[in-house]
Amino acid sequence: MKREQIQQQHQQQNATDQDEISIAQQNSEVNQELLGETDDLLAEIDGLLEENAEDFVKGFVQKGGQ
Amino acid sequence: MKKRIFGIETEFGITYVPSSLGPIGPEEAARILFKPVVESWRSTNVFLPNGSRLYLDVGSHPEYATAESATLRDLIAQDKAGELLFADLLNQAQDSIEAEGKEGTFYLFKNNVDSAGNSFGSHENYMLERRVEFSKLVRSLIPFLMTRQIMVGAGKTHPHGPEAWRPLTGQDKKHGTPSFSFSQRADYIWEDASTATTRSRPLINTRDEPHADPNQYRRMHVINGDSNMSETTTLLKIGATDIILRMLEDHFPLENFEIKDTANALRTVSHDLTGTTRFELADGSYKNALELQRNYLRAAQKYIADAGAHHADVPYILDLWNRALIAVETQDISGIDTEIDWAIKKKLLDSYIARGAKDYADSRIQQLDLAYHSIDPDRGVFNVLQKAGRARRVIDPGAVEKATLQPPETRAKIRGSFIQAAHRAGEPTTVDWVHLRLNNKPQLNAVCKDPFATEDSTVKQLIDLLGAQKTQEWMPPFI
């Protein structure tokens, strides 16, 4: 690829670079909050799971694939 | 600079959980799931306006093959779009059985193994230039593919410890300490490279079906990867593999790590979370997964420093690759636990164990391991974690929705526009990855051999024949 084309591509991708940076910052913030939220999150997940865990898992049987 | 076409094929697992009497088997469940597809498209094997292929595979597996994509971000958007398309079908299936008065819930899982040990796949496609010496490339790539699971595996619990390493005898199934492995798929791969995918599963399928000009290209079909929920894990999986392929295509010097017994080494690596257990190489020496991956990463860093980054995500890919190896080296997953599937899952399961679940064999843990892969946007455990900020995105949710309707900027655009126009006009078509035809105009047979082309004069003629306006809105495929 020619240099101009590469530059053009980089310009097009400026927007995504910005996303990258803001995501990276968000990321560290999220990690700091983790301890505080985990109980709530696990409770939320618990509320979404089927009651009978064993039936849920054992009942998932496919025929072989591919 | 080399361009490449990427594609991912995903087989989904299906189940129905009745809350009162009346089970529905997987075949019947798949039939109900595909009812709207048949009603809209008169087939259970269709190419859609977004350029993808959605079909019912051998063994009643719903399967989605992304449209050919020329960038990793398009590929990830297409891959996640497949989950959304199936989530829509799942909703319709749910409505239709509820209308019949049945009580229960359908689930689709993007994972690789069921409770009976049947495995189904996630296949990656990489287009290579024909001039590359294929058999040599495959040999050099296998040690990378075999050990990359320590970065990009989807994680799996084993209630009775690692499964027997040779076909199960049934006797030694129920022994061993409950454990967690990097990979879902590693226990089900048996050889290096072959033309089969069903009977003796290889890492790489060497069947030569380029779906493009065979004089110029060939397609490498990698079948040992796990299905990933995490967008960043997919980005690393495909992105790092692409970098290694580029190095091989450019004859960049890589050490020879040819492995003596691939199937054995795959299992050893998957079940050893420390990454330090050694396996034998063909030359009689012993190496471990961390040593191999450190070597590949160093080479990749050097290669990129020389050749330059070929897309904007390369620095992130190299960084995540490094952090994944650090996590295994230090046994501290906190640096990757929002970006790498096995670590996201392990963190969740370990939190439950810290709060009283017994171990990886606990039925609640088993349930979470499976529910992590449920594609339900609101109830699937991975999706709940992602919404809570515990799993990093690289694609805007709006772009994923758009990718359910619109093809990426490749040949998929030609095919998608054609399918959309013909579908509107109610004209039956015959379509595959390369050929497009209106059944009522068999003399106009479009052959699109260049996967990078976004326009084709014959197809334009066909679309004009259909009397379609160019500015048409893209429509949801199943209504």
Give the secondary structure arrangement, pairings included.
The complex is a heterodimer of chains A (66) and B (479).
Chain A: H1 3-12, H2 14-48, H3 53-58
Chain B: E1 6-11, E2 13-18, H1 26-33, H2 35-41, E3 45-47, E4 53-57, E5 61-65, H3 72-99, E6 104-109, E7 122-129, H4 134-147, H5 149-152, E8 156-158, E9 179-181, E10 191-194, E11 202-205, E12 217-222, H6 231-249, H7 262-270, E13 279-280, E14 286-287, H8 289-307, H9 314-330, H10 341-354, H11 363-371, H12 381-387, H13 397-405, H14 411-425, E15 429-431, E16 435-438, E17 445-447, H15 457-465
Parallel strand pairs in B: 10-11
Antiparallel strand pairs in B: 1-5, 1-7, 2-6, 3-4, 4-5, 7-12, 8-9, 11-12, 13-14, 15-16, 16-17
What does this structure look like?
The complex is a heterodimer of chains A (66) and B (479). Chain A is mainly α. Chain A has one domain (1-65). Chain A is built from 3 helices and no strands. Chain A is elongated. The two termini of chain A are 38 Å apart. The model of chain A is unreliable at 1-36 (pLDDT under 50). Chain B is α+β, with helices and mostly antiparallel strands and 479 residues long. Chain B has a domain at 406-465. In chain B, 39% of the residues lie in helices and 15% in strands. Chain B contains 15 helices and 17 strands. In chain B, the strands form 5 sheets. Chain B has an 8-stranded mixed beta sheet. Chain B is globular and about 65 Å long. The chains are: A mainly alpha (66), B alpha+beta (479). Chains A and B meet through helix 1, helix 2 and helix 3 of A and strand 2, strand 6, helix 10, helix 11 and helix 12 of B.
